[in-house]
Amino acid sequence: xxxxxxxxxxxxxxxxxxxxxxxxxxxxxxxxxxxxxxxxxxxxxxxxxxxxxxxxxxxxxxxxxxxxxxxxxxxxxxxxxxxxxxxxxxxxxxxxxxxxxxxxxxxxxxxxxxxxxxxxxxxxxxxxxxxxxxxxxxxxxxxxxxxxxxxxxxxxxxxxxxxxxxxxxxxxxxxxxxxxxxxxxxxxxxxxxxxxxxxxxxxxxxxxxxxxxxxxxxxxxxxxxxxxxxxxxxxxxxxxxxxxxxxxxxxxxxxxxxxxxxxxxxxxxxxxxxxxxxxxxxxxxxxxxxxxxxxxxxxxxxxxxxxxxxxxxxxxxxxxxxxxxxxxxxxxxxxxxxxxxxxxxxxxxxxxxxxxxxxxxxxxxxxxxxxxxxxxxxxxxxxxxxxxxxxxxxxxxxxxxxxxxxxxxxxxxxxxxxxxxxxxxxxxxxxxxxxxxxxxxxxxxxxxxxxxxxxxxxxxxxxxxxxxxxxxxxxxxxxxxxxxxxxxxxxxxxxxxxxxxxxxxxxxxxxxxxxxxxxxxxxxxxxxxxxxxxxxxxxxxxxxxxxxxxxxxxxxxxxxxxxxxxxxxxxxxxxxxxxxxxxxxxxxxxxxxxxxxxxxxxxxxxxxxxxxxxxxxxxxxxxxxxxxxxxxxxxxxxxxxxxxxxxxxxxxxxxxxxxxxxxxxxxxxxxxxxxxxxxxxxxxxxxxxxxxxxxxxxxxxxxxxxxxxxxxx
Length: 713
Fold this sequence. Notes:
It contains 25 helices and 5 strands. It is mainly α. Residues 526-546 are annotated as: Disordered.
């Protein structure tokens, strides 16, 4: 056990660095608010004006790769063999699927100040898109509760992974409960102090450690355990086919496993685009270029982080033929390496630290997403629409404390009972979010889609899913998971019904409105902005003070309608007599917290990003990552040290990743929102006094001839 003692100083330094990043973020938040009189709530939940490319990429990567990516996939590869490859096409497909929604979600969020998907859905299906005012409320509330499930399953998953791995590595010198409580305390401090910026700063640290740790994985399994070649001598030998875990290394999966493989890949591709801690990054990006560059790189990270975990699990089949029931293959591997010398112990401790990085980076993001949803989707919308910045922050932090306590409690309980395991938790976290997909994907691109069609599909699909998952049809229910006898999950079955109903009913209401006499026609499509929010207005505003006043004033009005604090305005201009030309109430520091529903018109333009031929090709590539073209249960040949079918699956996933990078870099189309008038009851178009192209400051005499130009609404 002496060799494992090196873990204590390494983990101690890591926790100190995480806390330091949280304190630094809190300082930056206070500085930004003080300098610009900015929105404290937005500063806390969305990192103010947004995250740049470097920070955004690392926080997106660290948030995605949870504890399961490091320890869970090792265990899955150890127990299920080549089937663990499902994570790579599923992950690559997920990030390509973000291209369906990212351009529009980001643009409308910048335009209107959205924090959550429920806010987007409420506005999209309010007004003329629904026949009754209650419809958008039900859709938004259903989405809210459906998106809460992945938050808590992620928290439980991370704490379960963390507690189990630390306990295994230290031979129970540090109990699972102790490890979970210490980690939870650090997470809570960072979240309370710095919000999104603290999460992002710590994610940079944790993402770098995780990425480097994954590379060390590849080196260690080769140098210390013999790598693929040594493992192949064990599980590639037909004489060992009767040994536990070896059959799956020598054969094509059985039919039910192939169906389950398909279910997982396509279910993850759709459902995970709704996970709040991931979509929060779309809202928090500084501009569209950040998302484009970040996503085009993200699609390749699966081949470093998750693939290295798989190789470690496959090699462990030979290195650790027997593992105690409920034991962790990842922890056992680290312990095996640590006992070979002090240097190896240091490396093993670093690998443990990288795993903890993956766990904590996802947990803190889930925690922040949870609190922002409760603040925006419930508290300020229904209970306290006039809540001050301080009240909103206090409420959000109380929610974070409660959510963390629930996560810690359930994480400890799952370790004690062993149910659900990590695979079961991931299966369950897709059960409800997948039903938000039709509303978001179709709602962002189909102007004629009505709220009633979305609601019928939503409720029916969700009811079918919940009915199956809690019935005997779910053969994995005793394990806390979700799978029917045919291999399909209840989530996928319900999703297909949901999507089908939305498309059928939506098409009838759109193309045959006479069948629904209560449906009123939509107003004519609005005019698009001249440029996308990130590609032109921001640059113009920085160069021309007059446009800055116009844009900021209009954004303040939109902010008022959305129940958020006004963005920063330039100094209030005055006319030649010294009178304000913009009402004095509309300036930085003014609280705009009254919720005013406002219909979101998405226009009729079709994005080039959604080229149908390109997406059909990528869909076929994704489909053929599933070994449906091989006879189920047949003996599999080998390409080098890897079976033919998983080799083919990974090769196609690599081709898909290249296609994904092309989608973001060359097919991406910046969305141009529809022009909107100033919100009802807010400022009308005003005259801005301009002297030599610069708004005249209060109390200052004009330096040249004065002209007036209107604020554009």
